[in-house]
Amino acid sequence: MANDDRYTTELAHLQRTAAESRLRAVECQLSLAFTLCAIAETEIRYGQPREATEVMNKVRHHAETIRVHLDEPNHLPRTAISELRKQLTQLKKRTEEIESSLRQQ
């Protein structure tokens, strides 16, 4: 019985640790996506719409990957999901603004 309790405790600890590691990875993906947005804006400012479009394709890929992970049960700590969704919404808004700028080119 004691071994079962230790096993359950250790497994829960490992699952929390894994979720925290995945959270850090998602946070890095969000940070990268916002950095890519800044790069795309710079490309637009310097008259490089093709390069900006390529960068925005990467942003869309990151956003979709993040969205999938947010919807995956027990993939991330529940306490972090709300804030990540807010950031993803901000990323979507910024993406739409950049894409609007590209259409005006």
Could you give a short description of this structure?
By secondary structure, the chain is mostly helical. The protein has helices spanning 2-45, 49-71, 78-103. The termini are far apart.
Structural description of this entry:
The protein has 105 residues and is mainly alpha-helical. It has one domain (2-103). It has three helices and no strands. Helix 1 packs antiparallel against helix 2 (49-71). The longest helix is centred in the first third of the chain and has 44 residues, at 2-45.
Question: SSE layout and pairings?
Answer:
Blueprint: H1 2-45, H2 49-71, H3 78-103
Helix pairs in contact: 1-2, 1-3, 2-3
Distance between the termini: 69 Å
In terms of quaternary structure, what is this? single chain
The amount of beta strand, in percent, is under 5%
The total of helices stands at 3
The major sheet is characterized as: none
In round numbers, the mean pLDDT is: 94
User: Globular, elongated, flat, extended or rod-shaped: what is the shape?
Assistant: rod-shaped
Question: Rg from C-alpha positions?
Answer: 19 Å
* Proportion in helices: over 70%
Give the count of structural domains: 1
| Structural class designation | mainly alpha
Give keywords.
mainly alpha, single chain, 105 residues, 3 helices, rod-shaped
